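Record Nudix hydrolase domain-containing protein, 257 aa.
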Amino acid sequence: MTSPENAGSSLLIGGPVPGAARQGRHKQRYGEAGERLVAGCIPVRFSGCTQSAQHVQVCMITTASGNGLVFPKGGWEDDESVESAAQRETVEEAGVRGMLEEPLLGVFPFSGGKHVYDAQGHPVGKCKAFIYVMHVAEELSSWPESKDRQRIWCSIAEATRQCKHQWMREALRAWVRRKGWDEATPTESECATQQQLLQHKVLETKDSGSSALDEQRQQGSPLGDSYSCVGSSSARLAESDVCSFQAAEPCLSMGST
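=>
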């Protein structure tokens, strides 16, 4: 567990790597209607330091069960600001750090898969996610959940297709609209089809017990430039199932527009 004195510094670029993710809900914040409050980020970087949608790369992670791709997020606790919670969850789950783009992208309600109760102990099953965009400046080779999740970089369009949750797609689209870019993102039916294909591939990978990427790692072979990931997970995704882009250095200009 990260010590209190290192909790804040572990969010900073170049700071110490957090030792473990926070556990439990004894400090969890809840809204007035009993909804669980969570915070997270859409981590992005630019190739060529341009403000063009074609040069954006979006970071996604596999779920803990390995059955889909999501953005990092988790419980907002009562001893931290919403900004710190978003940064903490992002470094714990995705192993990236950077600068938050102001203002807050938005608050997105969703139905959580875990049991959530109001002040009277009644189940409500509702959550509100406070989402920021993070301009990534640092990728860690090891992070608290690196053994449970895989980190993947892909285009905006591919992130929209692959995203497991509709509310996360809406968050990404909200950022696209904020930037004033043409929203050439996939339709919901295209996303559903892509999700079915992805789920099928994940199940195939689990059944086989090993994938081409596992073999590459065991043999020490580098991954191709069109696929960027670090860490491990219970399921591996093939290059063609995730995204295709040319590897590039993170953008050094971190200011928002």
